[in-house]
Amino acid sequence: MERQELKRELDATLEARRELGREYESALVESFVEKVDTQVRRRLAEERLGAARGGGGAGRTSATGTGAVPGSGTFGERFGFAIVTLVLAVPLSAIGAAQARLSGLVVVWAGIVAVNLIHARSPRGRARGMDDA
Prior knowledge:
By secondary structure, the protein is mostly helical. Helices cover about 80% and strands about 0% of the residues. The longest helix has about 45 residues, at about 75-120.
């Protein structure tokens, strides 16, 4: 359900950008990013609540059957973060390409790759994953 909502929001944002023009592009992107951030935070809070309750209640367990909620460990966190950055890559790529053509696009994607690498290698995520085991 959340993916469908985000897809509709992205479609609406892109349509609004076409209608309103570049003057409102950054405001539209900020609005979309805020909506994505809200959804990610809500989902993370739900998963942490489920993990704090021992993974019970909603019947959400990992593939290993340990009762850990997907996303509470390092793989789920990294995967979710990567998905969010790829969703955000669409409008950021459009802005970068529109403003500075190929060099802007390269800078945007270099930033996306760098952010994902830094997040994947962060010791905070690894330490949290060890606590869940």
